[in-house]
RNA sequence: GCGCCCGUAGCUCAGCCGGAUAGAGCAACGGAUUUCUAAUCCGUCGGUCGGGUGUUCGAGUCACCCCGGGCGCGCCA
């Protein structure tokens, strides 16, 4: 199904051809409602190219443009913009078509790609914390959207399960472990022994050396240490799974760093053999002397002591994803500090001849009220579990207040949808690169650009249908008369124009902002236009509009990984 | 020293490929409710887009310089 934007772009292209002008400029949504619904700067661009007066060029185009019954006659405005205003009948017709469309107008891609999306990546023996929220939530949303477009998506959790932290964890396990605590709350106990060991090792060089030895033993295959490692991995994975269940996050594969162990020597060998890597100060490095930005920043792929590091693992990971998984596209979602690292990794991959489309999708940080990285009072990372539990508890409190008569199971379900949705939406409604200040009150507010506000719009729609006793609408003709109806319907038609924009630069906030506008527009409509009490044909038409709005809200939020309750 | 990201209303933030008089939300103030959930809606107030120079018909957006904040830069991940 074509959007108004693509339909009008074609009409414009036809007009340019008829006027013997090259195709130029673009047709975009109007920057302001005063200018109608769509605008084009084609005349401005052409006038510049040809040294003519823009308004004259615009008039020339206007003489050839035939918008049929889509729009009112287009007009020239300002320095030479051409403005298009949709006719209510055309909007009504399109909305009726959308009602019949499962995909709500969003067309599938014609060039399906195989995309590995790497996001989340928590560390074993450490709790998931607030720092994992952005990568996890953003990566999941992008995966959902890519999938919706028909791409083949492989969600990969690149778990940190082989790092140097294991030296300390194993030392702690052997010397400090309390079995009962481990049974009660495994992650807390792992964290305790890790922290305590860390403290000791900073004070006592002999402890530090002992930790290093434990790590070396593990990495060289010591059975006891490997068994401790395995137990830690299993305990942590259980912890991750609980968080993912609550967050409704799913992975197709979870290839931790350890998965790549036996591939690392071959990676270094290969890079040395091909001349891409060389030995420098005892370490194996890749230099990028021809790239000014990286000229003085070599990438170490084997340490002087013969050990491998995360760069080695990441090169092996690229190999695996392209050669074994047959990916043609790799998206890696991590915080901005890793920009340099992945520039190097991707550059190495290109030099090795890989043609895949590599994207490092970076994001900013979540800050506390003090505008510094969000931490607990004692300075630790805020555990994810506590964060999510509190979100649900706070949401529960609000539900209790507003709707005390609901059953207990309903309240729990609703609180979870609102609480988790609020955390996710607070993140996704913002441009990914900017740091943002975490605020319970703001994200759980019923007013403003929040998940509960959007969910409430959906709930109001469901409420209408419960009252009507009708599950869905069965009409093929809408009658749009009131401004609030027309505006809502136009917005609904834009869903298919907005969703593709998200993948343009990986900005789910574009979709979030659209959904906020939609919810706002729906609320305005709701205030201005009675549905069930109005006369036919308005009643059926408005019911259909509600149906469509509910489905777009539900689908849009689903693409962001957010659920909608039926009541709240 | 080199590099990356950010700087927009009192606060929190949108403004992708340069387009018209820079937009929301919150807060503040003023209105609307015998209602399909007022958990909402409508209105008012509020900005030399950090500063400067340049590119051009046009710059919050691009280039260069400066200021301020955050982060990263050979053996942690």
Strand content: 5-15%
Category by helix and strand content? alpha/beta
Largest sheet: 4 strands, antiparallel
What is the overall silhouette? globular
The CATH superfamily of the domain at 4-86 is known as Arginyl tRNA synthetase N-terminal domain
CATH top level of the domain at 4-86 is Alpha Beta
Shape-level CATH architecture of the domain at 4-86: 2-Layer Sandwich
Give the N-terminus to C-terminus distance in angstroms.
34 Å
Major β-sheet strand ordering: 1-2-4-3
Separate helix tally: 20
Spans of at least 5 consecutive residues with low confidence = none
CATH fold descriptor of the domain at 4-86? Gyrase A, domain 2
Query: What does the radius of gyration come to?
Result: 28 Å
How confident is the prediction overall: mean pLDDT?
Answer: 92
Proportion in helices: 40-55%
Number of strands: 13
Features:
single chain; Gyrase A, domain 2; four-stranded parallel beta sheet; RNA-binding; 568 residues; alpha/beta; four-stranded antiparallel beta sheet
Write a brief caption for the model.
The protein is α/β, with parallel strands linked by helices and 568 residues long. Among the domains are: 83 residues, Gyrase A, domain 2 (2-Layer Sandwich); 83 residues, no CATH class.
């Amino acid at each position: 199904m074509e959007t108004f934007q693509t339909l009008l772009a074609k009409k414009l292209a036809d007009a340019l051809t008829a006027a013997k002008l090259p195709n130029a400029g673009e047709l975009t949504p109007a920057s302001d409602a005063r200018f109608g619904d769509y605008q084009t700067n084609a005349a401005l661009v052409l006038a510049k190219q040809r040294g003519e007066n823009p308004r004259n060029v615009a008039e020339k185009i206007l003489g050839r443009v035939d918008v049929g019954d889509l729009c009112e006659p287009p007009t020239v405005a300002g320095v030479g913009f051409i403005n298009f205003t949709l006719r209510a009948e055309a909007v009504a017709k399109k909305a009726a078509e959308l009602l019949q469309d499962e995909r709500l107008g969003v067309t599938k891609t014609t060039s399906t790609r195989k995309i590995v999306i790497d996001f989340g990546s928590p560390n074993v023996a450490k709790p998931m914390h607030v720092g994992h929220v952005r990568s996890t939530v953003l990566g999941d949303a992008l995966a959902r959207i890519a999938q919706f477009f028909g791409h083949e998506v492989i969600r990969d959790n690149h778990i940190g399960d082989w790092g140097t932290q294991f030296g300390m964890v194993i030392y702690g396990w052997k010397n400090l472990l309390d079995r009962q605590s481990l049974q009660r709350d495994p992650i807390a106990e792992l964290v305790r022994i890790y922290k305590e060991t860390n403290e000791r090792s900073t004070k006592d060089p002999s402890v530090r050396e002992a930790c290093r030895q434990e790590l070396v033993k593990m990495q060289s295959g010591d059975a006891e240490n490997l068994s401790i490692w395995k137990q830690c991995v299993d305990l942590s994975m259980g912890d991750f799974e609980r968080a993912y269940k609550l967050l409704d996050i799913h992975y197709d594969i979870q290839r931790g760093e350890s998965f790549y162990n036996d591939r690392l020597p071959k990676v270094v060998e290969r890079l040395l053999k091909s001349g891409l890597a060389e030995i420098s100060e005892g370490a194996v490095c890749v230099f990028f002397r021809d790239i000014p930005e990286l000229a003085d920043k070599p990438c170490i792929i084997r340490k002087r002591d013969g050990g491998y590091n995360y760069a080695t693992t990441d090169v092996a990971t690229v190999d695996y994803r392209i050669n074994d998984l047959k990916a043609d596209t790799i998206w890696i979602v991590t915080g901005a500090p890793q920009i340099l690292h992945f520039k190097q990794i991707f550059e190495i991959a290109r030099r090795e001849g890989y043609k895949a489309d590599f994207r490092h999708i970076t994001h900013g940080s979540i800050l506390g009220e003090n505008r510094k990285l969000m931490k607990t009072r004692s300075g630790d990372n805020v555990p994810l579990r506590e964060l999510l539990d509190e979100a649900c508890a706070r949401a529960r409190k609000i539900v209790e207040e507003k709707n005390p008569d609901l059953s207990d199971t309903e309240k729990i379900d609703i609180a979870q949808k609102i609480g988790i949705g609020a955390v996710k939406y607070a993140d996704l409604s913002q441009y990914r690169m900017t740091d943002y200040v975490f605020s319970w009150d703001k994200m759980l507010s019923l007013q403003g650009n929040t998940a509960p506000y959007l969910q409430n719009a959906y709930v109001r729609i469901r409420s209408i249908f419960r009252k009507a006793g009708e599950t869905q609408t069965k009409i093929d003709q809408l009658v749009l008369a009131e401004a609030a109806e027309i505006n809502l319907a136009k917005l609904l038609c834009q869903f298919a124009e907005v969703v593709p924009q998200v993948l343009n630069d990986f900005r789910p906030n574009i979709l979030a902002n659209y959904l906020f506008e939609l919810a706002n527009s729906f609320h305005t409509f709701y205030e201005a236009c009675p549905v069930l009490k109005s006369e036919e044909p308005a009643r059926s038409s408005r019911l259909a509009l509600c149906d469509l709005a509910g489905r777009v809200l539900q689908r849009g939020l689903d693409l962001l990984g957010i659920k909608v309750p039926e009541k709240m």
